Description:
Elements: H1 4-22, E1 34-36, H2 44-51, E2 60-62, H3 64-69, H4 78-92, H5 94-97, H6 104-108, H7 112-133
Antiparallel strand pairs: 1-2
The chain binds zinc ion (ZN).
Amino acid sequence: xxxxxxxxxxxxxxxxxxxxxxxxxxxxxxxxxxxxxxxxxxxxxxxxxxxxxxxxxxxxxxxxxxxxxxxxxxxxxxxxxxxxxxxxxxxxxxxxxxxxxxxxxxxxxxxxxxxxxxxxxxxxxxxxxxxxxxxxxxxxxx
Length: 142
Ligand SMILES: [Zn+2]
């Protein structure tokens, strides 16, 4: 029987190929902005085999926020790194994640400025939720 950790690792490895090909942050699904050499120990061999690096070494594509969240910390497994980054993202985006749901007719009754603020807030919440659910969901607009 497959363990939860085994499933998570397979999911991560599958999404790594897509992230490398499409320059997607491996941790949250946003557009990658840099290449992070902070690779969990247990993934090094796998990444080395699929990347065949030149002089640049083994790296993964990441957004700046995820890169800074795990900067200077070594992780044994991708699950440990992901748990750490999720906790950091959850804390940084706690206000986005707390935005309430609005019914369409409630939003329609608002003036332009408030309606725009509410819709931007809902977009921010959905983006934060999708980043935490990556790779099962992908943030919109990325
Ligand atoms: Zn990210």
